[in-house]
Amino acid sequence: MTANEKKQLQIAACKVRMGVVEGTHAAKAGHPGGSLSAADMFAYLYFKELNIDPADPKNPDRDRFVLSKGHTAPGLYAALANRGFFPVEDLKTLRQIGSYLQGHPNMNTVPGVDMSTGSLGQGISAACGMALAARHMGKTCRVYTLLGDGEIEEGEVWEALMFAHHYKLDNLCVIIDNNGLQIDGPVTEVMNSYPIPDKLVAFGFEVAEIDGHDFDQMEAVFAKAKETKGVPFAIVMHTTKGKGVSYMENQVGWHGKAPNDAEYEQAMGELNAQLAGLEAE
Amino acid sequence: MADVKKIATRESYGNALKELGAAHEDVIVFDADLSNATKTNTFQKAYPDRHFNCGIAEGNMMAVAAGAASMGLVPFASSFAMFAAGRAFEQVRNSIGYPHLNVKIGATHGGISVGEDGASHQCCEDFALMRSIPGMVVMSPADDVETRAMVKAAYEYKGPVYMRFSRFGMDAVHDPDNYTFEIGKGEVLREGTDVAIIANGLLVPEAVKAGQMLAEEGISAMVIDMATVKPLDEELVLRAAKTCGKIVTAEEHSIIGGLGEAVCATVAESGIPCKVKRIGVNDEFGHSGPAAALLKQFGLSAEHIAKVVLPA
User: Is B31 exposed, middle or buried (0-12, 13-18, 19+ CB in 10 A)?
Assistant: First the structure.
């Protein structure tokens, strides 16, 4: 990755974060914490990794992305908008009556959304079905799905992981956002889902751990995922919940709460300063 | 009427899937470790590369089917009604129903005629659960001829469909040489003016028999096979209400939330004066026993239908 490519990704990620703040502030609701922890991954997927075309969002041979942790729709929407699937201005209609930007992703209303999700545990199953179908149909496209570290407490996730291994879905890439926090508190206190990598290995996955805010590591791990044959691939990415907005970082309370006007001003001030710094380099 | 074999509709389902598989490459089948019982193994033997066992994980199976449907395939996902509609309700609701994906759910072992397995497996709530999902088509055929036609119609229809089949074989009522099926259309098997018996599934042959018994008593009964519970053929229900002023519904399902309640709602909102009596499983669980004996014990029989119609 060139220095300029990395800077462009950093700029994209910063804009995703601004979209998250804009959307949740306007909606007076939504889930900023997990949207921000995954913002760098959203940026990498939509600006580098996925084979997609905003002008042809239903192309049958496109790569698929399923946001299994559907409550972080603000992050996905911000990535899609900045990638050109729909106007960035529309992010402010998040969760409003009449908006196509539903609280959780709706594949029938939002251009670029490949699966309706929101009920935790179901997205990864749908991604398995897509990967199986893609291979059955002779397609070379790949399927990516992003889960939360709290989400994996759902039993269905493990049914899906078993399925992916059983059917050797090597066109599937499972990403787990390990930000360590869920609604009621730290994952280790609410319902300990650790050790995540060991469990994935036991379920037959090729597993890699990365820093979820490091684009170089993302580039390397996705290259490895594509080279891995015969078994599905999983990435456990270590992240900071609320990343990029100082007062939200590592704060459990920012899982599902919108910034008020003052908090909005502060967050946008921080992100605008970050963006200006990147663009001035 | 041509000679028709008395076979369980789950058997017909397996055969119909095999026929569909021959005609359409995009048909794939998912099962949850019950292929021998749901009869999807008939399809599996013919097209092993298009049959995917999901193991004992019905929730995952339904969302997997949703993902496959989103890619353009036409998945049929099968398990027992208890697990397809019950265990996996929320996956069916959120991953299939909400995005309106083209998944066909083939649920076998509906109702108390599951028999010896007992209450844990006797699903009498599936119509209620599936009817409540917006956009879901809910159907239950009476016999082999109707099952085969229904499965084909489900394939042709674009959107989610729930079909309930039986473990237990009953007398056939349809002539294979002279039969057409349309989703959402009831079928008048016998015209009548005194009472209308509206039934589906295993209760259809019983309703036909009841119609004959009532005729011997001088009562003219209209008999309707209402294979589609949703969308309900309201036009036919209201014709029956107007013509007869008295309706008896008969289904192998709880009287709560099934065909009977759908008919009641339609009649009540129409303003047509018409009494409706629901025959089904009352608000109780089933129990173990041979299917035929259970059907009789629970009043799911021609004799009971006739008794309900006849003045005390």
Answer: buried
